[in-house]
Amino acid sequence: MIAINSIIGTKGVPSINPFELKPSLTNSKLFARDRNVCAYCGGHFHEEDLTREHIVPFARNGQDHWMNVVTACRPCNHRKGPRTPEQAHMPLLYAPYVPSLWEDFILRNRRILADQMEFLMAHVPKSSRLLA
Ligand SMILES: [Zn+2]
Predict the structure, then answer these.
(1) What CATH architecture does domain 24-97 belong to?
(2) I want to staple 57 with a disulfide (CB 3.0 to 4.6 A). Which of 28, 82, 107, 114 is the partner?
(3) Dist. CA 80–CA 85, nearest whole Å
């Protein structure tokens, strides 16, 4: 159980339900959530060729939130422009979701020990793309 202690045995953590907290949104975590796959063309890209795409654009009061962002390659993001997927006739190939803090931990840490990974994946919600 050393793996558990190394993950959640932190001092001074308030008694909160980690499943109710929303992890912060960063491009690298977004791309990891979406497995570097463009939501519009389905292509697989390197991080430098990907963008944070707002499903409902800022120009239409879209929010910078996990549920309004997907990974898109630069050509698709440019083609969609300040339009919704319906207006652009570019349906999403997958749905956005808010990662749990368990997933957030995984998304932030690319170097996780194998036994820690096994423990973490056991706590990932069934809806997670990380299980795919
Ligand atoms: Zn694309």
Answers:
(1) Orthogonal Bundle (1.10)
(2) 82
(3) 7
Distance 54 CA to ligand 1 centre (A): 14
Write the pLDDT tens digit of every residue in 80-130. 999 999 999 999 999 999 988 778 877 777 666 666 777 777 777 777 877
Q: To the nearest 10°, report the CA torsion of 107, 94, 81, 43.
A: 80
Report CA(70)–ligand 1 centroid distance (Å). 11
CA angle in degrees (0–180, nearest 5) for 132-51-111: 50
Ligand 1 center–CA 43 separation, angstroms: 6
- Give the domain ranges of the chain: 24-97
| Per-residue pLDDT tens digits for 50-89 | 999 999 998 899 999 999 999 999 999 999 999 999 999 9
Contact between 71 and 52 under an 8 Å Cβ cutoff? The reply is: yes
Q: How close is the Cα of 46 to the center of ligand 1, in Å?
A: 12
